[in-house]
Amino acid sequence: MVYVPAYQNSWQGYLAIRTPPPVGVALPAVRVRSTTPIAVTLGITRTMDDLLDEQLVQPRLSAVLLSGFGLVALLLAAIGLYGIMAAAVSDQTREIGVRMALGATPDRLRRDVLGRALAVAGAGTAVGLACALATSRLITSMLYRVSPTDPIALVGACGILLAVALLAAYIPARRATRIEPALALRAE
Q: What is the pLDDT confidence band of residue 146, given thresholds at 50, 70 and 90?
């Protein structure tokens, strides 16, 4: 119930109604009755979801754009790491051939190549984590229900980066295990 003074000529305000049924069912049942001769009408009727959607357009757009830029950065990092690892494997063709001729197993060579990739990605992740912690106060206003130093978010991001790095290095590692020792030694 809302009581308005009788001598007040006009009253504008918001009336919030909480209903269990959908708004389309409950809205026709809402009646506004006045004890004075002043006509009372319902103006614009909207749901709380509609009102909140208007308020959250900018934060949602920012979140979508930042997520998109993050995915593009992750893709570029994966492509760059793949290029670095492919170049490193091709530069080490003779060394890998010698190691295979001396009895190195394909599993051992794959582990070595993946280990180098993990070392490069781990160093990059550590630098990125340090930069993220140092600049965390700059993005505090853009976060909703997440702290900029949230350990789950930071560990999750680092884990995703390391997994992408290992995936990007897997193809050069597999290629390293297929090198013929005799051809590798004659390549130079």
A: confident
